[in-house]
Amino acid sequence: AQTVTQSQPEMSVQEAETVTLSCTYDTSESNYYLFWYKQPPSRQMILVIRQEAYKQQNATENRFSVNFQKAAKSFSLKISDSQLGDTAMYFCAFMRDSNYQLIWGAGTKLIIKP
Amino acid sequence: GAVVSQHPSRVICKSGTSVKIECRSLDFQATTMFWYRQFPKQSLMLMATSNEGSKATYEQGVEKDKFLINHASLTLSTLTVTSAHPEDSSFYICSARGRLAGGPETQYFGPGTRLLVL
Q1: Strand pairing of A64-69 and A10-14?
Q2: How many Cα neighbours within 13 Å face the side chain of A19?
Q3: How many CA atoms lie within 13 A of A46 on its CB side?
């Protein structure tokens, strides 16, 4: 069975700093997708970034980028020039391409301090 | 803009009544929708997978007679909490599987429904 592990329950950084959130996963599948979702206090789940396992190039979306290490089964999220609006819970998730269900990590609470 | 809507956003009901929550995909057809429950400070717990035109698939431990799911069209799935009790109070979130802007399959989430059963 697939599992997703986020080892950092909470992180706190100053505004404008760079922060990296860790995520590891376990699977025997060869084709899958990985996601980072953000859940701010409003509780709306927002897609931050996604990565297809067959792509070697790391995904980037403006200030957000990932370090995808397939052999190590690691999928970390880097937030550059952090902003107050980045304060939220961040969830790492794994999706099989067979049933499209998401397997979730426990989440990391990120606090950006002014 | 939002790609999945969910209604109502908040509902308070008396114990023993039934509550229906609607989940709609906007601007795309979703053959598969998912229903989750989220407890405070926890991750999402998948309750069931809803496929258009067929019966929902429930996760282990979720009572299908209590949480009725209907996926009557490619843009609408409903979750009905029947004979609600205080322990059903929670935050319910739906998602729709879609492929937008030529990207990979992704789940897009509704804003959630906060249910309080008195």
Answers
A1: unpaired
A2: 22
A3: 16
By the 8 A CB rule, do B103 and A50 touch? yes
Residues B105, A97: C-beta atoms closer than 8 Å = yes
Q: Residue A13 in 3-state DSSP?
A: strand
Place of tokens 């996604």: A50
Residue ranges of chain B with pLDDT lower than 50?
Answer: none
Strands B67-73 and A60-61: unpaired
B107 and A CB contact within 8 Å: yes
Residue B1: predicted pLDDT: 56
Between the alpha carbon of residue B49 and those of residues A66, B29, B52, B54, the distances in Å are: 29, 16, 10, 10
A44 with B46: Cβ contact below 8 A: no
| Residues B76-106 pLDDT 10s | 999 999 999 999 999 999 999 988 777 778 8
Which residue type does A41 have? Answer: P
Q: In terms of Cα–Cα distance, which of A75, A87, A81, A82 is closest to A40?
A: A87
